[in-house]
UniProtKB/TrEMBL annotation:
Annotated TM spans: 96-117, 129-149, 205-226
Protein name: Gustatory receptor
Organism for this UniProt entry: Nephila pilipes (Giant wood spider)
Alphabetical keyword list: Membrane, Transmembrane, Transmembrane helix
């Protein structure tokens, strides 16, 4: 975009050389400020989201292990209480960050699409241009993967922990009826991390998003090649 704007200014007959220089300088400052601000915000949110998801996944895994290895003298109420607290935390996390997670994932996909479009169609001005495109692809892909992989890991570990808790009455026959009532009354809710309360985040959604990005990329590249052949 900067290259296109620069060429538009250079081809214009309404600006002097000094004016062109100042306009390009203002453009560079504006682009750098926007990039730094958005990068800090998106990186901070995705890093926090990924860190919390990593901790939740570890705790869910430990809870699943302790439930599967339950003993007769174990405090079953504590296991159920811990599971309900974890579910409450997951719900709070999703309530607060489902929209920011959607924005980060969408920004990552759009950034990947734009950088690849820039790589294919925009004229290159040297090795620095390729280097900036490579850094952009790494950055946007990291944002996308940070949200998708961490959230899908939490959802899968949460489902596994739920199955372990639901099987708890069968492992303690002497308290089967009491545990069955408690488990069915308290632990039946399906809570998961989502994108804007619309899409449940799992690995299939990750593959679908990357497949959609690849499909549109191929479509745009094909249309660009067809337009280029027609112009020739």
């Amino acid at each position: 975009m900067r290259v296109m704007f620069q060429r538009g200014i250079e081809n214009s007959h309404y600006y002097s050389l000094e004016t062109e220089h100042y306009m390009l300088l203002i453009l560079d400052i504006d682009v750098i400020a926007v990039l730094i601000t958005s990068s800090l915000v998106l990186t901070s949110l995705s890093g926090y989201y990924g860190f919390v998801c990593f901790q939740l996944q570890l705790i869910f895994s430990r809870l699943e292990t302790s439930t599967e290895n339950v003993k007769k003298n174990c405090n079953y109420g504590q296991i159920i209480y811990n599971y309900l607290e974890l579910i409450r935390i997951v719900k709070s996390l999703d309530d607060c960050l489902n929209y920011p997670a959607f924005v980060i994932v969408l920004s990552g996909l759009l950034g990947l699409f734009y950088t690849n479009y820039d790589l294919v169609f925009v004229p290159k001005s040297g090795c620095l241009h390729y280097f900036s495109i490579t850094l952009g692809e790494i950055y946007f892909f990291t944002l996308f993967v940070m949200i998708m992989l961490s959230a899908s890991a939490v959802n899968s570990s949460s489902a596994a922990a739920k199955e372990a808790v639901m099987s708890l009455p069968g492992k303690v026959p002497e308290h089967y009826n009491e545990l069955k009532v408690v488990v069915r009354g308290e632990c039946m809710r399906d809570v998961s991390l989502t994108l804007w309360k619309t899409y449940k985040i799992d690995r299939s959604l990750l593959i679908s998003a990357l497949g959609t990005l690849l499909t549109y990329g191929i479509l745009v590249a094909t249309l660009g090649a067809m337009n280029g052949s027609r112009s020739n």
